[in-house]
Amino acid sequence: MKYSSAFVYYAKRLAEERYQPLTLEKERELLHQYSAGHEEAFNKIVNAYLRFVIFLLREFKIPDDVDIMDIIQEGNLGLMHGLTKFNPELYDCRVSTYCAHWIRFFLNKSLFSYSKARNFFTPILEEEYLQGYVIEKDSYKDKANTDIVEYALSKLNKRERLVVSLYFGLRPPYMSKTLLEIASMLHINFERVRQLKDLALEKMKPYVDNPPIINQIRKECYNYYEE
Fold this sequence. Notes:
The protein is an all-alpha fold. It contains 12 helices and 2 strands; from the N terminus they run αααααααββααααα. The protein is 68% helix and 2% strand. Strands 1-2 form a two-stranded antiparallel ribbon.
């Protein structure tokens, strides 16, 4: 697993006082304040457990091509989701004990989503045959792959198309962006970007996994370069 400069900066910030662990008494005090409607108490508890998310992340194997900050953000969402469900009157345990399940769940979901997304275009990019013809021209192959992807992208709305294009680096300068970077660029939250990406991939799947459509596009491209 590679550590980006963003992660190093993030980890350094977590050494600040406001991110330090809470005593049991302080945690209970903040939980009761949160139950009474004080949102600031919620934020203080979350801050105190951000390092716990990184601790649990050590249980997972993170591929080198995955931005660790995106995964951490998902774990943080799991922490916050768990905290909203935690009732100190019902559960005689620390927040970490209760929320660990939700953090792991969100981390698992995120890594599965990344795996699915990174391999999304594999059937297109690795295909070597077109109705019995061995591909011999790189220009033909590139155009066919591009046309298939463009056809699938055309089925998305403007924002979905933008998110997918940024995530996979499909537009100049052809540099893929992380979900966190896209969220910053579009001025929307991380969770919304992830939802848009997942929804867009589901919409595209019937087209990039549709053999008749793929074969027709490739046949047209093959004939174009044969002329």
